[in-house]
Amino acid sequence: MIKILFADDHEMVRIGVSAYLSAQHDMQVVAEADDGAEAVEKALALRPDIILLDLVMKEMDGIEATQEIIAQWPDAKIIIVTSFLDDEKVYPALEAGATSYMLKTSKASEIAAAIRKTYQGESVLEPEVTGKLMNHMRQQPSQLPHEQLTNREMEVLLLMTKGKSNQEIADELFITLKTAKVHVSNILAKLDVSDRTQAVIYAFQKGLA
Questions:
Q1: Exposed end of the chain (fewer CB within 10 Å): N or C?
Q2: Domains in the chain: boundaries
Q3: Where does 2-139 sit in CATH, by number?
Q4: Is 145-205 a domain of CATH 1.10.10.10?
Q5: Is the pLDDT of residue 86 over 80?
Q6: Quick one: which of 59, 5, 58 has its CA closest to 180?
């Protein structure tokens, strides 16, 4: 059985999708979550075979949840299932570590097929996503390190330049301390620096703060 965690902030969507997937002969929805933070907690506790994540959820969105799960469990297989096909959603989700990207307009059978393929190690992208991704790669200029940061990571970096601790960052952004630590870790990795001081120096050198 392919064990699945499904996170979506719409209860009726969760009920419908979970019922369909659980009716499959080779699938079992072992847990549900209605926000990103709960999805991260259950994913790390249960280690399901597949994690289905919506993008827009309260407290922590699907991109941030993907980043935190992958940071602590690099082998996690995450499928984004969303209504969004915007560039600012697709690329950050895939860069965060999502394995596959599906749209909610897909047929239920297509979602199930994507789950099976992702479980087997394949990456499944909607045709529209594949086209946009190819265009993006052709047009994408060389990025500076800080251009890889998500909007939330940039917010965290700017708070770091103000001397804020991880706890103070968490309090100001209304996120958990664990989430704040993950963001800081991601920032250091993307900027290719070894500590917070170097990250702050980088921010001032590049005129970010």
A1: N
A2: 2-139, 145-205
A3: 3.40.50.2300
A4: yes
A5: no
A6: 59
Structure tokens at 108: 């239920």
**pLDDT tens for each residue of 92-136:** 888 888 999 999 888 999 999 999 999 999 988 887 776 666 665
Segment 146-161 shows an average pLDDT of 92
Dist CA 187 CA 196 (whole Å):
9
Q: 62-98 burial, b if ≥16 CB within 10 A, otherwise e?
A: bbbbbbbbbbebeebbbbbbbebeeeebbbbbbebbb
**Percent with pLDDT over 70 in the chain:** 93
How far is it, in rounded angstroms, from Cα 191 to Cα 174? 24
Question: With a threshold of 0.90, does the pTM exceed it?
Answer: no
- Return the DSSP state at 7: E
CA distances from 145 to 10, 16, 107, 135, 141 (A): 36, 41, 38, 21, 12
Q: Do domains 2-139 and 145-205 have the same CATH topology?
A: no
